[in-house]
């Protein structure tokens, strides 16, 4: 008997791909499903490893990551280590853009989706800089490494 929750989720992913103007393909569904399930940004290499059992080659996954990013379904972020990571783009008001935490010891990446950062310019600083920030990265030691 099919799981209704899983089916509804796949239908939502298919609809999102179509609404973005892309064809629904196995690799696109697999990428979105994986990113939805993990809830954290993943690199191309991590996705290749995680989806290897499905038989998708690295080039196919990379092309689909770029297509999904250009279509507005994914964000591509660099967390300071020159490795591009991909995450689902926040579309709902209750899950806006958010900062990320990177452990400086083990490298674990955590989305801080419940954290809100308010930037206020220091007296005498250029106030226009605050409005142009698109990404916030916080580095330190995670609870396991501390």
Automatic annotation (TrEMBL):
Q: Which InterPro entries would you find in this protein's record?
A: FUR, WH-like_DNA-bd_sf, WH_DNA-bd_sf
Q: State the Gene3D superfamilies in the record.
A: Winged helix-like DNA-binding domain superfamily/Winged helix DNA-binding domain
Which Pfam family, an example, fits this chain? FUR
Name of the protein: Transcriptional repressor
Which organism encodes this protein?
Answer: Nannocystis radixulma
């Amino acid at each position: 008997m099919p799981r209704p929750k899983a089916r509804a989720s796949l239908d939502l992913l298919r609809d999102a791909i179509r609404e973005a103007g892309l064809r629904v393909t196995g690799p696109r569904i697999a990428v979105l499903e994986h990113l939805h399930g993990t809830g954290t940004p993943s690199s191309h290499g991590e996705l290749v490893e995680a989806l290897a059992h499905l038989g998708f080659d690295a080039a196919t996954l990379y092309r689909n990551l770029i297509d999904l990013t250009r279509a507005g379904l994914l964000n591509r972020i660099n967390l300071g280590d020159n490795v591009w990571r991909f995450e689902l783009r926040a579309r709902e008001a209750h899950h806006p853009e958010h900062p990320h935490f990177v452990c400086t010891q083990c490298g674990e990446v955590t989305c801080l989706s419940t954290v809100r950062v308010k930037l206020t310019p220091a007296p005498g600083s250029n106030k226009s800089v605050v409005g142009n920030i698109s990404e916030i990265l916080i580095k330190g030691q995670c609870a396991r490494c501390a």
